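Onboarding guide, step 5: your first structure request.
Type a short instruction followed by the sequence, for example:

Predict the 3D structure of this protein.
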Amino acid sequence: MTSLHIHTDSNDDKVKAVALGYDQNKDEAPRVLASGKNKIAEQIIAVAKQNGIPIRDDPVLTAALMEIDINQTIPPELYRVVAEVLSYIYRIQHKTGKVNN
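The system replies with structure tokens like these:
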């Protein structure tokens, strides 16, 4: 897996999380690997933290990603915003030397 990161929405009482992954050798676009609310979201976030996976709190993007089925690629209308997030994460990872492969 070339990239894996988590989007969260912790603005209300219900925690939400979506895990995205992208393998440039086999995926045409990033895909949803996991998503959930409350306890499941907390588990997704905990696993991400344990494995050093970047987490971004983005309620609007999280809401859009929650509508996508597990293992489905993101729709073209989300390419730009997800690409911006991935670009930001790659820059941070390379600056800190923490690159997930």
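Each response can be followed by summary notes, for example: The radius of gyration is 13 Å.
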